[in-house]
Amino acid sequence: MVEQQEASGDAVMTRIGQAIMLLHGGDREEARNRFGALWSELGADGDALHRCTLAHYMADTQDDPGDELAWDLRALTAAEGLRAAEGVGGAEAGGAGTGAAEGAGASDVPGGSEGADGGPAAEHPDIPAVRAFYPSLHLNLAADYLKLQRPESARIHLQRARAAAESLADDGYGGGVRAAIDRLELRMREQ
User: Fold this and answer.
1) What are phi and psi of 120, to 5 degrees?
2) Pick the residue with more confidence: 161 or 96?
3) Where does residue 99 rank: exposed (0-12), middle (13-18), buried (19+ CB within 10 A)?
4) If DSSP states are collapsed to H, E and C, what string results for 146-186?
5) For residues 147 and 15, what is the distance between their CA atoms, to the nearest angstrom?
6) How confident is the model over 56-75, as pLDDT tens digits?
7) What is the mean predicted confidence (pLDDT) over 2-16?
8) What spatial distance separates the first Cα and last Cα of the chain, rounded to whole Å?
9) Which of 78, 90, 116, 131 could form a disulfide bond with 51, CB atoms 3.0-4.6 angstroms apart?
10) 115 φψ region: left (φ > 0), alpha (ψ -120 to 50), beta (else)
11) What is the pTM of this model?
């Protein structure tokens, strides 16, 4: 049964990946339709990494900046939900709702928690993947708030993106995210 659950989890990520390929190939409408169907299947209690990933990319299919913000907030809420369920980061991890949007310290690198024996608790296997998402999640939120003419909220999330990016590797992904943060910061200074 565990193998079946793992296979179905892999199948969901495969389907998310296929929709991402459609999005990157320029078929935003079909990507949006597939993401929407998957979101309905996952539901509010679906796997947090799946919900985070799906919402993160679903935001990119939106035409309305307010809708884009709503999906990016769903992605952040899913990421924070996983961290909160693990007891990682305590109150600084933020939480669902409005705290996740502007007031929570979600960019902090998760700290350890204690297991039942007083030693370090085992980290949920999705925590590293979610941790790698944080710079991009906050970068997208900063861009959303800038589009919606909310520069203070944009600055908050840009700062969180930069802080979270410190944990990224010096590889193509990390360099790309850091470059995007720099570009958005420059754009904000010019306004």
Assistant:
1) -65, 135
2) 161
3) middle
4) HHCCCHHHHHHHHHHHHHHHCCCCCCHHHHHHHHHHHHHHH
5) 30
6) 999 999 999 999 999 999 99
7) 67
8) 55
9) 78
10) beta
11) 0.76
H-only helix segments in 47-106: 48-58, 65-86, 98
- The answer to whether 109 and 127 are in contact (CB under 8 A) is no
Residues above pLDDT 70, as percent of the chain: 73
DSSP per position, 120-151: BPPPPTTHHHHHHHHHHHHHHHHHHHHHTT-H
Which tokens go with 63?
A: 């035409």
Q: Residue 15 class from Cβ within 10 Å (0-12 exposed, 13-18 middle, 19+ buried)?
A: middle
DSSP-assigned beta bridge partners for residue 120: 114
What kind and span of H or E run contains 60?
none
Q: What is the largest CA-CA distance in the chain?
A: 56
Task: Write out the DSSP string of 101-122.
Answer: IIIS-TTSPP---B-TTSSBPP
8 A C-beta contact, residue 68 and residue 62: yes
DSSP 43: -
How far apart, in whole angstroms, are the C-alpha atoms of residue 107 and residue 76? 10
Residue type, 75: A
